[in-house]
């Protein structure tokens, strides 16, 4: 085609890749475009990616695409990416403890959004910009977006204490991760300020049915121990607790209070409506993708750490402490 | 590298792409692999994709990634694809009426899963296998997976009629699409068998808040008209109806019955638990991705149409008809 247009290959690639402005004269550009038309040349993005090194493709890496928190993150990412970038969803099945980022880089993604509690933070040398999602701490050379949960968590714990709750279960995610570790630590630290309080940790996969089974099995022990409230690390775990308590005839909040983290779109619809600390998954996805786009636009991008607000949303699942009568 | 190994470029590409067996002698293969090692050659997937025409990447195209039905579909797709294929999530924002499949083909995806009610079925000539998801009808040359909703819909309508419901609202999706058209038609046809019944159609975007607003605004008219039941085209629309009815102090099912389609994981947790026709989104994603993989494995694949079962799940949102007292 360069021959047909009587120009250099470099010139052709400038035109093909829309970088001709100011570099190639309008006349030359017109000649190249005519040659392209004459030869019926179609820009193949694989071929182009060899020229530009860009796929206009961003990977969102997560352990569980079925998680509604994640689908809200993906919606925010998709909105922020618009039509300029494609979104590659790199799912790492439950069997994979760590995502394979090198494979994604080899695939040629322009950037990576890592929404993966417990993932090893990648080294700065992996070859494309990375933004960590929902990571309250990380190496300074990596960009990340996180929720500032401290104030809302204090408010949540203080409310339970004021309502007389002393013996509380913490329904945690079995997946390790700094975001879950932080929520748990902030709850425990705040509760420790009140003498005579106890926090018992149990763990479940972040699936409604898994959490429901765990709570159903644990309920007899909790009755005997005098547990009056459950703090759930995520709404999905909280949904499982709600269904198990409902099936066991335990009234929420009369006999058991329940409070959670996330405020998924369904938490205002549960029975009773869930009191929860709002962590906007959509905002998390949107802010992370915006930062990644900025990083892709800059020559030598500086890492960015951005915090998002958290807010306690009071609904109907928290009430005064009332010890369950032990059965059996 | 061909020079270093003293072989042809074709031979090198056979070895690089794991197609040497039976084509290249072990000795030659070893020589090429040594050259690869010596030259520190890394297989770049963009370069390789030019050789193989394969990205090991499948696109899932949908209008709204935030929809929990879609996230269940994506989970099923991810499971069926396993680690062999990457999943490209091609989101078409609300502003896009039609997905741009040619752009995806140009990007070099190996196949397309189209979960997009109302999308024009692509012509067979688009250059890669396509499977239509949740499409009850389509051109015979295209593979598709759909739900056989007829029997479950009849059961649902007959139950409402037996409970005395005559004046029913159909809360439909504003998005056009054969799957929504089919549900609506099957409901209307079955209801028509009973004299003195009326079905009023209203439409909303498939968002909890949009549906909630629409139902809240329509409720006064429905009271006056003596509506006693709502049939919702999707659970998300049903969630919106539930929250609007709850806010208006209308007891479900005492004063208004509600039945829906989907059975999302949250429908057993709503207040009251939602009676709904189960259309397994996970199974839909899994079956479609399995078919696409088979199509990718075959030399000249024949189109496949596969139906999935639907089942009425009776919970607590349907009861005997009781006309609301009109207010104002």
TrEMBL record, chains A, B:
<dbReference type="InterPro" id="IPR046335">
    <property type="entry name" value="LacI/GalR-like_sensor"/>
</dbReference>
<dbReference type="InterPro" id="IPR000843">
    <property type="entry name" value="HTH_LacI"/>
</dbReference>
<keyword id="KW-0804">Transcription</keyword>
<protein>
    <submittedName>
        <fullName>LacI family transcriptional regulator</fullName>
    </submittedName>
</protein>
<dbReference type="GO" id="GO:0000976">
    <property type="term" value="F:transcription cis-regulatory region binding"/>
</dbReference>
<dbReference type="GO" id="GO:0003700">
    <property type="term" value="F:DNA-binding transcription factor activity"/>
</dbReference>
<keyword id="KW-0238">DNA-binding</keyword>
<dbReference type="InterPro" id="IPR028082">
    <property type="entry name" value="Peripla_BP_I"/>
</dbReference>
<keyword id="KW-0805">Transcription regulation</keyword>
<dbReference type="Pfam" id="PF00356">
    <property type="entry name" value="LacI"/>
</dbReference>
<dbReference type="Pfam" id="PF13377">
    <property type="entry name" value="Peripla_BP_3"/>
</dbReference>
<feature type="domain" description="HTH lacI-type">
    <location>
        <begin position="1"/>
        <end position="52"/>
    </location>
</feature>
<dbReference type="InterPro" id="IPR010982">
    <property type="entry name" value="Lambda_DNA-bd_dom_sf"/>
</dbReference>
């Amino acid at each position: 085609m360069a021959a047909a247009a009587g120009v250099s290959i470099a010139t052709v690639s400038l035109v093909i890749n829309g970088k001709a402005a100011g570099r190639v004269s309008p006349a030359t550009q017109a000649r190249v475009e005519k040659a392209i038309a004459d030869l019926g040349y179609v820009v193949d993005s694989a071929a182009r990616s060899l020229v530009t090194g860009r796929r206009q493709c961003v990977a969102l890496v997560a352990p569980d695409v079925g998680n509604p928190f994640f689908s809200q993150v993906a919606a925010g990412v998709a909105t922020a990416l618009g039509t300029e970038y494609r979104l590659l969803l790199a799912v790492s099945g439950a069997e994979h403890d760590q995502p394979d980022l090198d494979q994604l880089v080899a695939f040629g993604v322009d950037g990576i959004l890592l929404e993966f509690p417990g993932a090893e933070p990648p080294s700065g040398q992996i070859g494309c910009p990375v933004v960590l999602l929902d990571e309250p701490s990380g190496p300074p050379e990596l960009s990340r977006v996180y929720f500032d949960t401290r104030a809302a968590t204090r408010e949540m714990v203080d409310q339970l204490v004021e309502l007389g709750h002393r013996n509380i279960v913490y329904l945690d995610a079995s997946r390790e991760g700094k975001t879950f570790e932080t929520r748990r630590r902030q709850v425990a630290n705040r509760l420790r300020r009140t003498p005579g309080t106890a926090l018992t940790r149990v763990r479940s996969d972040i699936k409604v049915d898994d959490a429901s089974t765990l709570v159903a099995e644990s309920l007899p022990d909790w009755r005997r121990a005098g547990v009056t409230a459950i703090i759930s690390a995520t709404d999905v775990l909280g949904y499982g607790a709600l269904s198990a308590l409902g099936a066991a005839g335990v009234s929420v909040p009369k006999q058991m209070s329940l409070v959670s983290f996330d405020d998924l779109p369904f938490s205002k619809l549960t029975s009773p409506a869930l009191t929860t600390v709002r962590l906007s998954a959509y905002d998390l996805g949107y802010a992370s993708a915006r930062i990644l786009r900025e990083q892709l636009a800059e020559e030598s991008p500086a890492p960015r750490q951005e915090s998002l607000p958290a807010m306690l949303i009071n609904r109907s699942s928290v009430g005064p402490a009332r010890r369950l009568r032990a059965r059996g």
